[in-house]
Amino acid sequence: MTTPPPTAHRRVAPGSPLDTDGPRVALYTPEFAADPHGAYRAMRAKHGSLVPVELAAGVPATLVIGYYTAVRIFNDPDHFPADPRTWQRSVPSDCPVLPMMQWRPNALRSAGAEHARYRQTNTAGLDKVDQYSLHDTVAEVAIPLINAFCADGSADLVRQYAFPLAFAVLNAMLGCPAELAQQAATGFAAIFEGVDAERGNKMLIGALTKLTELKRAEPGDDVTTRMLEHPAELTDTEMVHQLATLYGAGIEPQQNLIVNTLLLILTDERFGGSVLGGSLSTRDALDEVLFNDPPMANFCITFPKQPILIDDVWLPAHQPVVISMAACNTDPEISGNQYAGNRSHLAWGTGPHVCPASSLAYLIAQDAIDQLLDALPEIRLAVPPGELTWRPGPFHRALAALPITFPKSPPLLQP
């Protein structure tokens, strides 16, 4: 059989490759951000489980929107490794998605023995987080944030609650001083947005280098110190990139998980009164969001080492293959619209790269939402849902703002 050219995305009939190259779906536009599920339906009708897309202008990739195809790829790291080094040689240094996708010496962008070494270090740091203490940490962060706006009768839950909460809780877990944490958060925000991403990457690395140096000199009871003390003996450079992974997962996706779940509770009659009334739990709402609007909608990127035929499509070597967790979770082949108690979604990934911090992310999001609803049970969306703006970007599912109104309330007592 003839091997396809390395840049082609080809669907084949039995026995003969056929060129079906054409316009790619742009995942970075405001139009896609406004209605991704409509885009996924159109993709599925036209392309099936594998879709030719662009992550940025001139950056081709294949988007996986079939659930079973995604599971196969997740569990086949030999054919679908996560190492992007060959790919990135052909990518301009100012490419807006390069900082998000480039090789780093961490578990997310490594394969084989390197991946195992980095992942063991990460899980060793995360597994010893005291979840009882973490409940207290979330409350200690949430209550002052609520007190800052509860007497106003209105707030933006992205800017005034979800972001600062995710930011402060992660810093507490990592033992990161506020000044370094702010620099890291600013850098990662630029990386996620793809705006001045190269400068953001430099800011992030600088802050995390200083954090690594600080924790070597002054160890503490925190994730950073436990990772530094792991028998793998990571270098400073390796540590910086483990921390970059934790910041990438612990702020933006955590914020989006909280906000997207609050939006569901505020706009879906199945959840509004039911969560407050106790017939449905916050966790039920979280599970539905992780199916339909996961905070990282399109991610878990791999780079085939050679052209590979899957679902009658030739995927080219070293071109990104991106899993659409949002589209796979709503694949008609598996979707039954029963989300409460259903944890079969792919929002955390699966296989060797499954997220090692999913239980912590659940806890933080659930506690953050419960603290807010307990304090302000009468919150309402301040604008019609159709007027909300979703931030463009190929990877995340993120609101620009979530404005709410509520009866003015006195400050809460700090526990």
TrEMBL record:
<keyword id="KW-0408">Iron</keyword>
<keyword id="KW-0560">Oxidoreductase</keyword>
<dbReference type="InterPro" id="IPR002397">
    <property type="entry name" value="Cyt_P450_B"/>
</dbReference>
<dbReference type="GO" id="GO:0005506">
    <property type="term" value="F:iron ion binding"/>
</dbReference>
<dbReference type="GO" id="GO:0020037">
    <property type="term" value="F:heme binding"/>
</dbReference>
<dbReference type="InterPro" id="IPR036396">
    <property type="entry name" value="Cyt_P450_sf"/>
</dbReference>
<dbReference type="GO" id="GO:0016705">
    <property type="term" value="F:oxidoreductase activity, acting on paired donors, with incorporation or reduction of molecular oxygen"/>
</dbReference>
<comment type="similarity">
    <text>Belongs to the cytochrome P450 family.</text>
</comment>
<dbReference type="GO" id="GO:0004497">
    <property type="term" value="F:monooxygenase activity"/>
</dbReference>
<keyword id="KW-0349">Heme</keyword>
<keyword id="KW-0503">Monooxygenase</keyword>
<dbReference type="InterPro" id="IPR017972">
    <property type="entry name" value="Cyt_P450_CS"/>
</dbReference>
<feature type="region of interest" description="Disordered">
    <location>
        <begin position="1"/>
        <end position="23"/>
    </location>
</feature>
<protein>
    <submittedName>
        <fullName>Cytochrome P450</fullName>
    </submittedName>
</protein>
<keyword id="KW-0479">Metal-binding</keyword>
